C-alpha cells in the first residue's frame, strides 16, 4: 500500500470527481484545502463517504485519521447519506423563543423521525441548525435548501405532504 | 485606478440613473428572499415593461432595509419616497400603476416611526439603497474613495492614527480597541508576510448583522479589509464565512471578482506597490470557530480547536505569522472613518464606546429586524421605540444580549445607556449585537438551560472544564427545570460555573456560565420556585407533569 | 551570527530561578525540581494546554495561565499552589473521573497510573458530581495492544507522539465535546490500520490504562516514557 507515493487517481469516471479535483487544484493541493475539498465532495455527492474521504486524503497528502477527525468535527458535514428531501429546523435563540420545538414535534408526529434521523423509506431527513441568520423572520426552516420564514406547524405539514405519499389508512376487512 | 477614474465611474453611474423618475428598490437579502422577494422583483419588472416605462423607472434588487418582520420590503424612490411592506408579486401592478400618483395605501409602511427615524446609519448606510451585485453602484455611493485616498496619500501609520482617533472597538463582541490591534500587528516583525482575516463566522444564534452587511454591501467589507491590510503590511487576506450563509458567500465572491477587474484588489493596487489577494474560506458548522485561534486552525485545515493565548494572533497567528483578525462590522466602519476622519466618528457615541452599533432585534418584540443606533441609546428606546414594544400587550421581562456568552438585562436597567462598559457592569456583554427580547412567557431557567445546551454541543472538547463542565451544568439545569433538584444542586451549579469560567482554555468555556450567572443574579426567585415549589411561573417547564398529585 | 541567549530571572513558589528567553514556566520549574501538576504535557512532544492542571497564578494578573505554554517574563512571581488553584485542580479532576468509567481495581495500570497518582496527591477520594457512565468500547483488534476508551482522558499524547515522533499519524480525534473519541485511520479497528507501525510509542506515553500491552494483567503494566526526550534530542542533534 502506497497511499501517498503517486498522484491519486479519481475513484471512478463519475464526472463529479472533476469538481472535487478542481477545488483541490485551485488550492494547490495544499493540506489546508481539506475543508474546502470536503465541502465540494458533500455538495457533489450529498454526503462524505469512505471513498471520498480516502481520495481527498491521498490527493492532499493528509493522514486518514486527520481527515476523519475534521469531517466529524464540523456539524455541516455528514457521513451518512441524506434523504431525498431535507428539512432543517433552525434552533437558534430567536427561533427557539418563537416555537421551533413545535415544528420539530410536527415532523416527529407526521413522520416519526427526530433531529438527525431519516425516514425509513429515505424520503425525508430532519436536521437542526444552530442559527441560519434569519432571526428577523423567526421561526425559520430550510426546506431543500430554500429558507422559509415565519413557519407554522401547518406550513411544515404542507411541505411534508408534498414530499411524501399520504399514509394509506388501514382498512379493516369485515368478515 | 486613481481617484479621478473612480469619480468618472461614479459620474457615469449617476448619469445613467439621472433620467429616471422612479427607482423601485426591492430587498433581496436572505429574509425577504425567503418570502419570495425575487418573484416580486420579476413581477415589478414585467409591469414596468407592460406600461412602457423602462426609460423612466428602474426596478432594482437591493440589500436589507432593516424591518425584516414586515418583509418583503419595497421602496419606491422618486420625488417622494414610499415604503411598502409584505409585498407579493400580485401587488406589482398596483405599485407600478401608482407611480407619480397616490401611493397604494394598504401596503404602505410609515417611515415616520422611531424604527427608521432613530437610527443612525454608518455600517448600513448603503444597505437597501445600492445593488449589492454591482460595484458601480457602490462606487457611485462614494465606495473605494477611502481605499484610494489611503493608498495614494496616507502612510500606514497615518491610517492607523485615524483609526486610533476614531476610538473604534472590535464589533465582534470583545470590544478590543481596533487601532491598538492594528498597531500591534503593524509592529510585529515578519519575514514571511502577514495576513488579514475577516471573521464572518457569526455563530451567535439570534445575530444576523454580519450576514446582512455581507449580502447588502459586500464591497464595504472588502474596502475595510484592504485598508487594514495596507496599514499592517499584509498581502493576503481571508474571509471566513460560515457555510450557513450561501448567499453571502455568493455575493462576496462576485464582489471580489469585480474589485479585481477594476484593479482595486490584486497586485499593484492604484499603481502603488501594495497588493492584496482575498480568498474566501467556508466554515462548516462550528460555533467555536468564531474564536480567533479556532478560526485560524480551521483555515489551516484542522479541527477548529482553540490554542492558548498568549501568544496572540497579532504576534503569531495564521501559520505562525502576524495576523490581523477583525469582525465584519469592524471592517465595515473603516472606509467612513478614513473618508470623514477619526474625529468625526469619535463625535458619535459615549466616552468609551464610540460610533454606532448594529443590533439584531428579535424575539418577543413587534419590530424584528436590524437597527443601527449610536452607542449610548437606552435599552428602553431600543425595545419600546424602535422595537415597537412587546406584542399581544405582554409585559417586558428581559433583553438577552451577547448570545451564549452574554446575559439577561432585566427591567430595572431599561434606562441604561447601551455601551460596552454599562453592559459589562450589569453582568452581560455587548457581544456581536444579537438582542433577544423576552416577555413573561419566557422562563429564565429554561433560557439558561437553552444556552448551556448550546455551549455543551458546541464545545470543541479539547479542555476538560468546558467539555465535561458544560455537560454537568446542563444536567443540573435540566434537573432544576424538571422540578427534581434540591438546594445542594444549586450550590454545585454555582461552583461548577465559577470553575468553568476561570479554568477554560478559550472564550467559549470562559463565557458559557454567563447566562446562568446572569439569570441567577436577577431571577434567582425563579430558580427557587423550580427547586422548592416544583413550579414554573412562565409555564414553560414541567409541562408533562400531571396537575395535582395522584391525578 | 548566533542569537544572544537572553537570561531571565523570576520566582516560582518563592524560589529564585533563572531561565533562558524562550522557556516556559513549566520547563523552568521542572529544571529546578519544582513539581507542577500536569496530565497532557509530556517532555518531547508539543504542548497541548488542555488539561488545565498546570494553571498557575501570576502576581499582578487575575488570569490563570497554563505553565506548559506560557513563556517566562523577567520578574514574574509564580504561584503553583494556593487554595484556589488546588480546589480548581480537584474539581477539574473530579469532572474527568465522572466523564468515563475509571475503575482502578481491575485496571492494568493500577498503581502505575498518572491520573491515579495525581488524584491521590490532590486528596481525591470521591467525586462531588454524578458519574455519567457513558457506554464506550474497547478495541482489542491489534495483535499486541489494546485501546480501552473507558480509561481515556483525551489528553492526545498518543495522537501527538504518533504524529510528531513516529510520523505515522495513525491516531486522531473524532467528533467534539464529550462525544469526542480517539480513532485510528478512518475510524477503523486498530488491527486493520494501514498506517500503524506497531511501534508502541503511544502505549508508553499514555498516562492511564487506556492504551496497554496485551498479556498484562491487573496492575502489571508500567509505562516507560524515557525514550521520548532521548529521541527528540537525537533528532534535534541530527538536524
What does this structure look like?
The complex is a heterotrimer of chains A (175), B (551) and C (239). Chain A is built from seven helices and four strands. In chain A, α1 (16-26) runs antiparallel to α2, α2 (34-45) runs antiparallel to α3 and α6 runs parallel beside α7. Chain A is of the alpha+beta class and 175 residues long. Chain A is elongated and about 55 Å long. Chain A has a four-stranded mixed sheet, covered by helices on one side. Chain B is 42% helix and 13% strand. In chain B, the strands form three sheets. In chain B, strands 10-9-13-11-12 form a five-stranded mixed sheet. Mean pLDDT of chain B is 94; it is low at 546-551. At the A-B interface, α2, α4, α5 and β4 of A face α2, β9, β13 and α19 of B.
Q: Tell me how many strands of chain B there are.
A: 13
Strand order of the largest sheet of chain B: 10-9-13-11-12
Largest pleated sheet of chain A: 4 strands, mixed
Average the pLDDT over all residues of chain A and give the rounded result.
87
- Taken in chain order, the helices and strands of chain A follow as HHHHEHHEEEH
For the termini of chain A, the CA-CA separation is 67 Å
Helix content estimate of chain A: 40-55%
Report the average pLDDT across residues of chain B: 94
What would you call the shape of chain A?
elongated
Amino acid at each position: 500500500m502506497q497511499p501517498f507515493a503517486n498522484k491519486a487517481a479519481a475513484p471512478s469516471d463519475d464526472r463529479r470527481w472533476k469538481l472535487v479535483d478542481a477545488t483541490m487544484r485551485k488550492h494547490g493541493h495544499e493540506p489546508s484545502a481539506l475543508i474546502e475539498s470536503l465541502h465540494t465532495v458533500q455538495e457533489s455527492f450529498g454526503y462524505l463517504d469512505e471513498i471520498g474521504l480516502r481520495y481527498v486524503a491521498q490527493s492532499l497528502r493528509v493522514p486518514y485519521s486527520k481527515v476523519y477527525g475534521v469531517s466529524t468535527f464540523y456539524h455541516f458535514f455528514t457521513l451518512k447519506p441524506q434523504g431525498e428531501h431535507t428539512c432543517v429546523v433552525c434552533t437558534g435563540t430567536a427561533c427557539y423563543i418563537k416555537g421551533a420545538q413545535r415544528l420539530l414535534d410536527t415532523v416527529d408526529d407526521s413522520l416519526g423521525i427526530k433531529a438527525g434521523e431519516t425516514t425509513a423509506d429515505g424520503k425525508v431527513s430532519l436536521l437542526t441548525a444552530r442559527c441560519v441568520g434569519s432571526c428577523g423572520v423567526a421561526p425559520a426552516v430550510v426546506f431543500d435548501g430554500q429558507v422559509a420564514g415565519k413557519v407554522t406547524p401547518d406550513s411544515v405539514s404542507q411541505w411534508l405532504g408534498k414530499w411524501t405519499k399520504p399514509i394509506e389508512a388501514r382498512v379493516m376487512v369485515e368478515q | 485606478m486613481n481617484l479621478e477614474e473612480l469619480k468618472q465611474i461614479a459620474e457615469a453611474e449617476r448619469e445613467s440613473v439621472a433620467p429616471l423618475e422612479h427607482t423601485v428598490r426591492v430587498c433581496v437579502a436572505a429574509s425577504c428572499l425567503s418570502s419570495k422577494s425575487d418573484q416580486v422583483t420579476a413581477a415589478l419588472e414585467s409591469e414596468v415593461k407592460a406600461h412602457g416605462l423602462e426609460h423612466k423607472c428602474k426596478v432594482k434588487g437591493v440589500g436589507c432595509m432593516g424591518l425584516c418582520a414586515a418583509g418583503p420590503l419595497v421602496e419606491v424612490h422618486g420625488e417622494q419616497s414610499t415604503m411598502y411592506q409584505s409585498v407579493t408579486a400580485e401587488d406589482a401592478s398596483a405599485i407600478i400603476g401608482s407611480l407619480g400618483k397616490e401611493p397604494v395605501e394598504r401596503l404602505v409602511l410609515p417611515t415616520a416611526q422611531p424604527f427608521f427615524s432613530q437610527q443612525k446609519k454608518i455600517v448600513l448606510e448603503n444597505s437597501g439603497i445600492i445593488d449589492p451585485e454591482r460595484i458601480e453602484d457602490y462606487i457611485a455611493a462614494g465606495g473605494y474613495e477611502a481605499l484610494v485616498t489611503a493608498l495614494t496619500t496616507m502612510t500606514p501609520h497615518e491610517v492607523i492614527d485615524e483609526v486610533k482617533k476614531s476610538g473604534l472597538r472590535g464589533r465582534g463582541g470583545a470590544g478590543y480597541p481596533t487601532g491598538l490591534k492594528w498597531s500591534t500587528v503593524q509592529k510585529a516583525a515578519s519575514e514571511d508576510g502577514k495576513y488579514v482575516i475577516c471573521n464572518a463566522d457569526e455563530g451567535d444564534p439570534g445575530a444576523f448583522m454580519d450576514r446582512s452587511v455581507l449580502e447588502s454591501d459586500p464591497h464595504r467589507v472588502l474596502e475595510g479589509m484592504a485598508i487594514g491590510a495596507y496599514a499592517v503590511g499584509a498581502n493576503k487576506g481571508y474571509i471566513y464565512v460560515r457555510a450557513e450563509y450561501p448567499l453571502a458567500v455568493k455575493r462576496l465572491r462576485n464582489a471580489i471578482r469585480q474589485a479585481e477587474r477594476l484593479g482595486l484588489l490584486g497586485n499593484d493596487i492604484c499603481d502603488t506597490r501594495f497588493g492584496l489577494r482575498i480568498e474566501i474560506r467556508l466554515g462548516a458548522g462550528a460555533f467555536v470557530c468564531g474564536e480567533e485561534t479556532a478560526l485560524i486552525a480551521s483555515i489551516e485545515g484542522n479541527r477548529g480547536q482553540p490554542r492558548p493565548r498568549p501568544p496572540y494572533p497579532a504576534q503569531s497567528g495564521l501559520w505562525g505569522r502576524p495576523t490581523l483578525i477583525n469582525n465584519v462590522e469592524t471592517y465595515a466602519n473603516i472606509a467612513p472613518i478614513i473618508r470623514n476622519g477619526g474625529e468625526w466618528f469619535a463625535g458619535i457615541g459615549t466616552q468609551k464606546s464610540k460610533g454606532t452599533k448594529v443590533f439584531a432585534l428579535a424575539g418577543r418584540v413587534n419590530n424584528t429586524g436590524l437597527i443601527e443606533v449610536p452607542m449610548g441609546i437606552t435599552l428602553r428606546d431600543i425595545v419600546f421605540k424602535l422595537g415597537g414594544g412587546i406584542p399581544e400587550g405582554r409585559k417586558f421581562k428581559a433583553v438577552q444580549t451577547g448570545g451564549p456568552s452574554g446575559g439577561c438585562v432585566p427591567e430595572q436597567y431599561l434606562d441604561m445607556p447601551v455601551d460596552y462598559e454599562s453592559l459589562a457592569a450589569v453582568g452581560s456583554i455587548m457581544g456581536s449585537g444579537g438582542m433577544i427580547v423576552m416577555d413573561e412567557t419566557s422562563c429564565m431557567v429554561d433560557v439558561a438551560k437553552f444556552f448551556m445546551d448550546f455551549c455543551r454541543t458546541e464545545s470543541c472538547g479539547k479542555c476538560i472544564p468546558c467539555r465535561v463542565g458544560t455537560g454537568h451544568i446542563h444536567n443540573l439545569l435540566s434537573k432544576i427545570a424538571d422540578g427534581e433538584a434540591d438546594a445542594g444542586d444549586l450550590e454545585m451549579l454555582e461552583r461548577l460555573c465559577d470553575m468553568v469560567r476561570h479554568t477554560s482554555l478559550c472564550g467559549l468555556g470562559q463565557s458559557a456560565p454567563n447566562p446562568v450567572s446572569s439569570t441567577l443574579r436577577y431571577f434567582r426567585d425563579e430558580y427557587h420556585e423550580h427547586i422548592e415549589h416544583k413550579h414554573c411561573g412562565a409555564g414553560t417547564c414541567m409541562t408533562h407533569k400531571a396537575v395535582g398529585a395522584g391525578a | 551570527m548566533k542569537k544572544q541567549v537572553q537570561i531571565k530571572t523570576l520566582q516560582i513558589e518563592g524560589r529564585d530561578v533563572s531561565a533562558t528567553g524562550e522557556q516556559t514556566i513549566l520547563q523552568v520549574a521542572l529544571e529546578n525540581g519544582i513539581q507542577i501538576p500536569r496530565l497532557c504535557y509530556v517532555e518531547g512532544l508539543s504542548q497541548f494546554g488542555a488539561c488545565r492542571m498546570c494553571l498557575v497564578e501570576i502576581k499582578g494578573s487575575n488570569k490563570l495561565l497554563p505553565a506548559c505554554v506560557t513563556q517566562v517574563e523577567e520578574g514574574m512571581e509564580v504561584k503553583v499552589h494556593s487554595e484556589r488553584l488546588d480546589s480548581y485542580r480537584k474539581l477539574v479532576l473530579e469532572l474527568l473521573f465522572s466523564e468515563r468509567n475509571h475503575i482502578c481495581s481491575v485496571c492494568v495500570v493500577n498503581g502505575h497510573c498518572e491520573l491515579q497518582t495525581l488524584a491521590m496527591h490532590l486528596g481525591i477520594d470521591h467525586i462531588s458530581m454524578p458519574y455519567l457512565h457513558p457506554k464506550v468500547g474497547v478495541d482489542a483488534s491489534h495483535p499486541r495492544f489494546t485501546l480501552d476508551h473507558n480509561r481515556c482522558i483525551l489528553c492526545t499524547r498518543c495522537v501527538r507522539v504518533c504524529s510528531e515522533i513516529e510520523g505515522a499519524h495513525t491516531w486522531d480525534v473524532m467528533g467534539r465535546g464529550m462525544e469526542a473519541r480517539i480513532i485510528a485511520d478512518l475510524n477503523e479497528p486498530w488491527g486493520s490500520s494501514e498506517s500503524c507501525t506497531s511501534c508502541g510509542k503511544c502505549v508508553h506515553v499514555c498516562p492511564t490504562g487506556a492504551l496497554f500491552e496485551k498479556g498484562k494483567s491487573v496492575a502489571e503494566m508500567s509505562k516507560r516514557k524515557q525514550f521520548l526526550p532521548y529521541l527528540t534530542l537525537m533528532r534535534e542533534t541530527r538536524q
